[in-house]
From TrEMBL:
This is TonB-dependent receptor. It comes from the Bacteria. The keyword Cell division does not apply. The lineage of its organism: Bacteria, Pseudomonadati, Pseudomonadota, Alphaproteobacteria, Sphingomonadales. Gene3D superfamilies: TonB-dependent receptor, beta-barrel domain (2.40.170.20), TonB-dependent receptor, plug domain (2.170.130.10). It is found in: Cell outer membrane. Residues 1-29 form the signal peptide. Coiled coil: none annotated.
Length: 906
């Protein structure tokens, strides 16, 4: 049996085992003691009910939600390192109304009801590297006990997002018993065919008569990743052909009825690499009395991406060189096939390294003096990355005839390459390829924020007024971004790496030094998928064990910095400083309206933000500093009220005005230029922040301590949405690597507003009504519908109209299993290389997709357990299309992941 076949078998066994566990284990567990007592009456609160495992986590989460002063959903871990998923973003996606983005199959970004979420750790705002969007790949799930998803704000909470706030809560050493926990797992990726380690620990102890607590945790994980791709990397674009196509996508063009929307290129590639994540988290907590407490905590994590790409591409030039009668044009004007002559063929091997670092440190002090509580908090947060991208591209010495067809399925288009005489095009012969481009690019980005806040809470307890709260918060944030690129287009005959100095002959891959880096591509592309296209080719491959890969060895081997190399040819840099002053006042209320009990809060937050943006502009080789600034002041009211319709039935109503600042890339001055794809972006520091008026209504029924039925409706009226204005034209002093001077340039502008309205339905239900012999099952299900519209006509990026989660679990006698399926409908998102069809108001979308995960665990004792997890068991494909599904832009498939291990606690 082949290795990859064993990987698929292992994944299938894991998925089947989880499902069998759901169905068969009740019979096996009939003689086991129940894992929890049941609550069957809602007349009296059942404070003495004890539950464990999955049901304990759900009960704790429901209790937190029920007692909250705002619309919130909560995820809790009943034990160390036992959040529902290894990746925090993947845990959060189970929450009603939450949608996530993925990178190589792993959760990366989070939005709430289609809009960006702000991320905090212990209430402190975290920064993404040169981004508002926090990268959840950078955090180990073992560090956190609770995840809170706030959908309606309090006036006392930091502003910063339209969607809501995700707060990650670490464990506090004085809130639990001393403990040491160690977990060890092996993670198998079936597509990469690799087994990797995952290790974590947590230790907590108390001293000085239990007034001083210390906690320390650490985590290490390595993961091999393999993904296969088809891409129209440069996007789909309008072209005018020399035949009557029956379509005219540009009425202002004089060439009537000759237009098509066609792929600008066809690229097939594979990517394999390693992801390493490690970090530490620590807390010191001192509580000499109930009235005074000091806490210091900090987190450092590092997430390292190292990837090696191999690809070939064609159909990138001479769109008019087609064989008459061969074109396949759909009813929507899409060029879905044809035979094109005189086409370039390029092959490439690429090395990319991207370490991401996260540092966050803070101190908090709370002091109670009678009715007054004073809290002071200060923190420092920093996130940075450095992306190195190096490649050596080759092109065939002979052009090819390209015959392609898009099939309409989620498989790559069929592709056949032939020579002019009709013989097969050889993708493996080193003597048939000459160097085309050698390039080294380095991207540096960093964001850091220093914040301090002071809060006062005075308990009034007079009538319905319970307390008055006020506070101030000062922050300063700095975002920097740099691009350095060194390129050599291999056209200088004086370079001995590309030309024989004695004869003047241009070297091929068969010649030294070019031959030292190249080998046939070792795998079959999309090996388990259908379709007819090249499955392998010659690549420029970086040795995995070369310690100099990613450093000067590559540059020196091909004299990239000499012989006409373009060193920092288009210097790009951005420096954005953001200073914010905020203050709030808020009151808490409690009482009765007639016979109806209620609790409420209302307040207003004042925010002043000053932004200074600096960058560079390149005009005919003369680099000039440019600068822009903006000052914005806003008042943000917020109110929440909760009615106890019955002891087990709550009605919440919330209203607020919320604010989100534009993305750093949107505020940058100067250009961000991709010389290879011909795409550029231009920032706009004069952008106004996004603002939204929002209303939430939530009805929550708690028939038992572990059961919840909820329905929520929401409405957001958004101002100042950012829309992309795209145009084609030159950038003074800048030329693409292929000599073209026209770029597709995108610039953000404020373009009116939009509205989002929808509803959520959720249920958490242990099936305690089942007969004793099969008791232990439970179900969690939720569905979210979000309808949106914008005055600009552009879709809201990242917003799916529909999303749903269905989770079934079984728990009894120390055995537990869980199967979770998450699905979302299509959402707008532009891929790598930009969207060349955007000037025609044609947008790009990620196709609907669902992900299946499962887990099985068994507790041999309170101190030892084993677990088997499966992630992405369906090996779900990610599909991106331009406008309509027949215009396939990206197709990728990545690993199914299986992990097995144990945890010991003492």
């Amino acid at each position: 049996m082949r290795v990859h076949a064993r990987g698929r078998l292992l994944a299938s066994v894991a998925a089947t085992s989880a499902l069998i566990g759901m169905l068969a284990c009740p019979a096996a567990a009939q003689t086991a003691e129940p894992g929890a007592a049941e609550q069957t009456s809602t007349d009296e609160p059942a404070q003495d009910i004890i539950v464990t495992g999955i049901r304990a986590s759900l009960a704790q989460a429901i209790d937190r939600k029920r007692s909250a002063d705002q619309v919130v959903d909560v995820i809790t871990a009943d034990d160390i390192g036992k959040l529902p998923d290894d990746n925090i973003a993947e845990s959060i996606q189970r929450v009603t109304g939450v949608q996530i983005t993925r990178d190589e199959g792993e959760g990366r970004g989070v939005n709430i009801r289609g809009l960006t979420a702000q991320t905090t750790i212990n209430g402190r705002v975290q920064v993404g590297a040169n981004s508002r969007n926090f990268d959840f790949r950078n955090l180990a799930a073992e560090f956190f006990q609770t995840i809170e998803v706030f959908k309606s704000p309090l006036a006392s909470q930091p502003e910063g997002a339209l969607g809501g706030t995700v707060n990650l809560v670490t464990r506090k050493p004085l809130d639990g018993k001393p403990v040491v926990s160690i977990g060890v797992e092996g993670l198998y990726a079936d597509y990469a065919e690799k087994l990797d380690p995952r290790v974590s620990f947590f230790a907590s102890d108390q001293f000085a008569d239990d007034t001083l607590g210390v906690a320390l945790s650490g985590a290490y994980q390595r993961r091999h990743v393999r993904s296969d791709y088809f891409q129209a990397l440069s996007g789909w674009r309008r072209d005018t052909l020399s035949v009557n196509t029956g379509f005219d996508f540009n009425p202002g063009d004089t060439a009537q009825n000759r237009d098509v929307i066609r792929p600008a290129d066809l690229r097939y590639r594979t990517q394999d690499g390693e992801r390493t994540r490690y970090g530490v988290d620590g807390t010191i907590q001192w509580r000499p009395s109930d009235r005074f407490e000091v806490r210091f905590d900090g987190t450092y994590t590092r997430f390292e991406n190292v990837f090696r790409n191999a690809w070939f591409r064609t159909l990138s030039n001479n769109p008019g060189s087609f064989v008459p009668g061969s074109l396949v044009i759909s009813d929507q004007g899409s060029l879905l096939g044809g035979v094109f002559t005189n086409q370039r063929v390029e092959i490439d091997g690429r090395y990319e390294s991207e370490p991401l670092n996260l540092y966050t440190f803070g101190g908090n002090a709370r002091w109670e003096a009678g009715r007054l509580t004073v809290t002071a908090d200060a923190n420092y947060a920093k996130s940075d990355f450095k992306l190195i991208s190096q490649f050596l591209r080759f092109e065939g010495v002979q052009p090819a005839t390209v015959d392609f067809r898009f099939t309409g399925e989620d498989v790559p288009p069929t592709l056949a390459l032939t020579n002019a005489n009709g013989s097969p095009y050889d993708l493996f012969s080193p003597a048939l390829y000459v160097p085309n481009l050698a390039q080294d690019r380095v991207f540096d980005g960093a964001s850091e924020e220093i914040a301090g806040r002071l809060d006062f809470d005075y308990r009034v307890e007079s009538g319905i007024l319970q307390s008055i709260k006020a506070g101030v918060r000062l922050t300063t944030r700095d975002d920097t971004f740099r691009v350095g690129q060194t390129a050599n287009q291999t056209g200088n005959r004086a370079n001995p790496a590309f030309y024989d100095q004695a004869t003047g002959r241009r070297l091929t891959i068969a010649d030294a030094p070019l031959n030292t880096f190249n080998a046939p591509y070792p795998w079959r592309l999309f090996e388990d998928e259908g379709g007819t296209f090249p499955r392998g080719w010659l690549i420029h491959r970086y040795p995995a064990d070369d310690p100099d890969v990613g450093s000067t060895a590559y540059l020196d081997a091909f004299n990239i910095r000499d012989f006409g190399g373009l060193i920092n040819s288009v210097p790009e840099q951005s420096d954005i400083k953001e200073d914010t002053q905020a203050a709030y006042v808020m009151a808490d209320f409690s009482g009765d309206i007639g016979s109806l009990p209620f609790r409420a809060n209302a307040g207003v937050r004042y925010v002043r933000t000053e932004i200074t943006s600096r960058g560079l502009f390149n005009n005919n080789g003369v680099v000039t500093p440019v600068e822009g600034s903006n000052v914005d002041e806003r008042w943000l009211p917020a109110a929440n009220i909760t009615f106890n319709l019955r002891q087990d039935l709550l009605l919440r109503i919330a209203a607020a005005r919320v604010l989100q600042r534009p993305a750093q890339a949107s505020l940058a001055t100067g250009y961000n230029i991709n010389l290879s794809s011909g795409v550029a972006s231009l920032g706009n520091p004069q952008l106004d922040p996004f603002l939204a008026k929002q209303v939430d209504v939530s009805l929550e029924w708690y028939p038992t301590r572990e059961t919840l039925f909820s329905f929520a409706a929401f409405y957001k009226d958004v101002e100042n949405f950012t829309a992309a204005r795209t145009f084609t034209g030159p950038i003074p002093g800048v030329t693409q690597l292929d000599g073209d001077t026209d770029f597709v340039i995108t610039q953000p502008v404020n373009a009116g507003g939009g509205k989002i309205k929808g509803f959520e339905v959720g249920v958490q239900l242990p099936l305690t009504f089942l007969p004793e012999a099969v008791r232990g099952f439970g179900v969690i299900a939720n569905y979210t519908y979000s309808d949106s519209s914008t005055t600009s006509g552009q879709p809201i990026g990242g917003l799916s109209k529909q999303s749903a989660n269905l989770i079934g679990y079984f728990e009894r006698g120390g055995f537990s299993t869980r199967v979770a399926y998450s699905w979302r409908s299509r959402f707008a998102e532009t891929g790598e290389g930009g969207n060349q069809a955007l000037p025609l108001n044609i947008f790009e979308y990620i196709a609907p997709a669902g992900y299946l995960d499962a887990s099985i665990s068994y507790d041999f004792s309170p101190n030892f357990s084993l677990v088997l997890d499966g992630v992405n068991l369906l090996r779900t494909k990610q599909v991106r299309f331009t406008g309509i599904e027949e215009r396939l832009r990206d197709l990728s498939i990545t690993d199914r992941r299986i992990s097995f291990g144990g945890r010991i606690r003492f």
